[in-house]
Automatic annotation (TrEMBL):
This is Uncharacterized protein. Keywords: Membrane, Transmembrane, Transmembrane helix. It comes from the Bacteria. It comes from Cytobacillus firmus. The chain crosses the membrane at residues 54-75, 81-103.
Length: 150
């Protein structure tokens, strides 16, 4: 039987390994995971999307500003068509800028933790009757997740 567990890098991982060794389990394998080194792409492609859209507010503001620009364009010199297009462009740029700034503020806190948050996968080979005991030791030492495979 194999028991898989994930841990944060902490002294609890070392304590769990030590306790398992004291129980007579020697088939322990640990794999540290690497963090992402490059920044995620800002613009999505047709094949990959992160679910974040930067044009929603821009489209709404473009419609609103173009309506206002076109209605005011009857009074202004260039006419309603030019002022409607200027309003649409200004609204879209304003909405895009708002979405972009909000996205940067949300992801800034995640990037600050980028170097500190990595995990370790612990793979333990044991007898089937030792499985519950191993699982209890792992949970006792603050494992993030545990799975048993027969």
């Amino acid at each position: 039987m194999q028991v898989f567990a994930t841990f944060d890098h902490s002294p609890y991982l070392e304590l769990a390994i030590r306790k398992l060794e004291q129980q007579g389990i020697t088939d322990i394998y640990s794999v540290p995971l690497d963090n992402r080194t490059e920044e995620p792409r800002m613009i999505d492609s047709i094949h990959q999307s992160d679910g974040v859209s930067l044009i929603n507010k821009g489209m709404v503001l473009a419609v609103m500003f173009s309506v206002v620009g076109a209605s005011r364009g009857f009074i202004l010199e260039w006419g309603p068509i030019y002022w409607g297009m200027i309003g649409a462009a200004a609204g879209f740029l304003l909405g895009f800028a708002i979405d972009f700034i909000l996205l940067k503020l949300r992801t800034r806190n995640k990037r600050l933790l980028k170097g500190a948050k990595s995990e370790v996968i612990l793979i333990i080979g044991c007898q089937e009757e030792e499985g519950k005991q191993v699982e209890a030791i792992l949970w006792e030492h603050l494992a993030n997740a545990v799975a048993r495979v027969k």
